[in-house]
Amino acid sequence: MSYIEARELSRIYTAGDSQIRALDSVDFTIEDSELTIILGPSGSGKSTTLNLLGGIDSATSGSLYVDGQDLCGLSEKGLTSYRRTQVGFVFQFYNLIPNLTALENIELTAGLSSNPLSPQQLLESVGLKARAKNFPAELSGGEQQRVSIARALAKNPRLLLCDEPTGALDSETGKKVLILLASMARVEHKAVVIVTHNAAIAPAADRVIRLRDGHIVGIETNANPVEMESITW
Ligand SMILES: Nc1ncnc2c1ncn2[C@@H]1O[C@H](COP(=O)(O)OP(=O)(O)OP(=O)(O)O)[C@@H](O)[C@H]1O
Ligand SMILES: [Mg+2]
């Protein structure tokens, strides 16, 4: 069995008598140590897919196995434990805790893990060593985004889910972040899933999943992905 297996996975939102098929019976697999990129236009179901993978949202139907466990069959308690122990999540809109400093935000998730990475070192690796004591409101959008990436890594999770992790970053900083995320798959052997609009990074991924209107319109695998360092956009 693959590390992740989605089978006929659907998430349908109901509002009055209209239904939004955010994800419509999709099938995909993801292996351990893989860098996967999910591409697709706005509204195609990318965040929905990531939220299901992260145990933040529950599917309407289908199955979603992560490490042999069907998330669709887990209780709320089981999902909480799954989120806490297995998943690092970089949110599209950061979701930092406003009354904790940058460093404290990272320390908070490090504290959930039995095997955390150093919050101080992570802050340094995203280029924010000097901003440890600043609160989120004192940081630019891109700086907050980098804190949220360090926070997701701090837990040292087996599965790292990143929703537009470079959306607020200039190309140079974005590239540094992508190199760091790629190293989490290549060196640390985590499964890393990145949602992005930036198709230019697809050659650096092991697997590219293309979504449109809640459907998968293509899955490509690269036997020999290029180094993230060599990508230009
Ligand atoms: N809580 C919700 N209630 C109703 N509809 C929702 C909800 N969340 C998402 N949707 C709808 O589901 C569809 C997929 O949304 P999703 O957030 O997954 O898109 P996305 O691919 O991440 O888009 P973007 O690139 O803009 O972030 C959209 O049509 C969206 O409006
Ligand atoms: Mg989204």
Automatic annotation (TrEMBL):
Matches recorded under SMART domains: AAA
CDD domains in UniProt: ABC_MJ0796_LolCDE_FtsE
InterPro entries with a match to the protein in the record: AAA+_ATPase, ABC_transporter-like_ATP-bd, ABC_transporter-like_CS, MacB-like_ATP-bd, P-loop_NTPase
Pfam families according to UniProt: ABC_tran
Keywords: ATP-binding, Nucleotide-binding, Transport
Keyword Cytoplasm: no
All residue ranges annotated as the ABC transporter domain in the record: 4-231
SUPFAM superfamilies: P-loop containing nucleoside triphosphate hydrolases (SSF52540)
A GO molecular-function descriptor: ATP binding
Family: Belongs to the ABC transporter superfamily.
PANTHER family: ABC TRANSPORTER ATP-BINDING PROTEIN MG467-RELATED, LIPOPROTEIN-RELEASING SYSTEM ATP-BINDING PROTEIN LOLD
Protein name (Swiss-Prot/TrEMBL): ABC transporter ATP-binding protein
Protein species of origin: Bombiscardovia apis
